[in-house]
Amino acid sequence: MRTAVALLAPALLGGCDWVVMNPSGDVARQQANLILWSTGLMLLIIVPVIALTILFAWKYRHTNEEADYEPHWDHSTGLELIIWSAPLMIVIALGALTWISTHALDPYRPLARLEPGKVLAKTDKPLEIQVVSLDWKWLFIYPEQGVATVNELVLPMNRQVRFRITSSSVMNTFYVPAMAGMIYSMPGMETRLHAVLNKPGRFEGLSANYSGAGFSDMHFTVDSVDDAGFAKWASEARSAPAKLDMATYIQLEKPSEKVPAIRYAAFQPQLFDRILGMCTKPGETCMQATMMKDGARDPHRDSGHGDPVNDSGHMRGSESKGALQKEPEEKGSSPHRNAPRPAPPGSNKPGNEDNRSMTSAAPLPAMLTGLTAAARS
């Protein structure tokens, strides 16, 4: 039985598509080549070491009486040069290759080419797509086409695409193995990716970072089409019955699993910026406005900082007065944890309640009373 399984394994694996090593986009192709070059350089030292280990074990085995026996041998200059120079040269080559590739394949950097031999002009405008990871689905916004989709990504073939990526709640990773490496999506932050697809077809996209119960089904389709096909798809999307206004987005943002593809004929203006600023709900202050106001300087304040933004009672549901506006006496204080402490009862009074906690000078009820008073103030 085991022999049959072993013989069938190559045939079964023959149907697998190693998309990471056989991608359809130039960026992913360069990343696959980097893996191959790195593996080849490392094998230059791994293969000889394994081969010599087996050779030495066989040649100097206990039963081989013809092998040289030199119990006092301890040094060979030629051997030391080989042992240290070969790995050193490989490390230098790997370092240079990694440094060059890391800068050339920087996801924030616009593409220099669409494919080998086809240089991309700096004047060529990339297609911008705004990506939002939701629980547990993907939202794609096309500013140029004026449409939005859920779990459906359509790209024009042989055109640079600039992805602006964020998240509505928790961290995920935007990953299309056939196109480029994975990029994190994080709430309140924007990451970017420049990539291209060079072959037509349907590919798979997914989140590669665990984000909760619906993570396993957080997949989306990626269709690579020619310019005419992309224009036709955009026209069909603009005739979709639904529109992505703020009320619809708030409902879409709620956790849901196994969501089918959805198209929206239009979307709320500045929707991506509001998601990025975490201010999609009524009354919330966008983080962009918060940072701009907090960064302003007021010459009448000794600290040099401007008035805090959290003074309206509507910042993400908070109704409390901003801490920066409170005077020191309003904030209260907590028990002084570093105050001198009396000697603990120790072994002189075994079973004493004071021995239950050796980390605080104040008894637990008094400490809790102080903390409660400070919180109420």
TrEMBL record:
<dbReference type="GO" id="GO:0004129">
    <property type="term" value="F:cytochrome-c oxidase activity"/>
</dbReference>
<keyword id="KW-0472">Membrane</keyword>
<keyword id="KW-0560">Oxidoreductase</keyword>
<feature type="compositionally biased region" description="Basic and acidic residues">
    <location>
        <begin position="294"/>
        <end position="305"/>
    </location>
</feature>
<keyword id="KW-1133">Transmembrane helix</keyword>
<feature type="transmembrane region" description="Helical">
    <location>
        <begin position="35"/>
        <end position="58"/>
    </location>
</feature>
<dbReference type="InterPro" id="IPR006333">
    <property type="entry name" value="Cyt_o_ubiquinol_oxidase_su2"/>
</dbReference>
<dbReference type="GO" id="GO:0005507">
    <property type="term" value="F:copper ion binding"/>
</dbReference>
<keyword id="KW-0813">Transport</keyword>
<keyword id="KW-0249">Electron transport</keyword>
<dbReference type="GO" id="GO:0009486">
    <property type="term" value="F:cytochrome bo3 ubiquinol oxidase activity"/>
</dbReference>
<dbReference type="InterPro" id="IPR036257">
    <property type="entry name" value="Cyt_c_oxidase_su2_TM_sf"/>
</dbReference>
<feature type="region of interest" description="Disordered">
    <location>
        <begin position="294"/>
        <end position="377"/>
    </location>
</feature>
<keyword id="KW-0732">Signal</keyword>
<dbReference type="Pfam" id="PF00116">
    <property type="entry name" value="COX2"/>
</dbReference>
<dbReference type="GO" id="GO:0005886">
    <property type="term" value="C:plasma membrane"/>
</dbReference>
<dbReference type="InterPro" id="IPR008972">
    <property type="entry name" value="Cupredoxin"/>
</dbReference>
<keyword id="KW-0564">Palmitate</keyword>
<dbReference type="InterPro" id="IPR034227">
    <property type="entry name" value="CuRO_UO_II"/>
</dbReference>
<keyword id="KW-1003">Cell membrane</keyword>
<feature type="transmembrane region" description="Helical">
    <location>
        <begin position="79"/>
        <end position="100"/>
    </location>
</feature>
<dbReference type="Pfam" id="PF06481">
    <property type="entry name" value="COX_ARM"/>
</dbReference>
<protein>
    <recommendedName>
        <fullName>Ubiquinol oxidase polypeptide II</fullName>
    </recommendedName>
</protein>
<keyword id="KW-0449">Lipoprotein</keyword>
<keyword id="KW-0679">Respiratory chain</keyword>
<feature type="domain" description="Cytochrome oxidase subunit II transmembrane region profile">
    <location>
        <begin position="12"/>
        <end position="109"/>
    </location>
</feature>
<keyword id="KW-0812">Transmembrane</keyword>
<dbReference type="InterPro" id="IPR045187">
    <property type="entry name" value="CcO_II"/>
</dbReference>
<dbReference type="InterPro" id="IPR002429">
    <property type="entry name" value="CcO_II-like_C"/>
</dbReference>
<dbReference type="GO" id="GO:0042773">
    <property type="term" value="P:ATP synthesis coupled electron transport"/>
</dbReference>
<dbReference type="InterPro" id="IPR010514">
    <property type="entry name" value="COX_ARM"/>
</dbReference>
<feature type="compositionally biased region" description="Basic and acidic residues">
    <location>
        <begin position="313"/>
        <end position="333"/>
    </location>
</feature>
<dbReference type="InterPro" id="IPR011759">
    <property type="entry name" value="Cyt_c_oxidase_su2_TM_dom"/>
</dbReference>
<feature type="domain" description="Cytochrome oxidase subunit II copper A binding">
    <location>
        <begin position="124"/>
        <end position="236"/>
    </location>
</feature>
<dbReference type="GO" id="GO:0016682">
    <property type="term" value="F:oxidoreductase activity, acting on diphenols and related substances as donors, oxygen as acceptor"/>
</dbReference>
<comment type="similarity">
    <text>Belongs to the cytochrome c oxidase subunit 2 family.</text>
</comment>
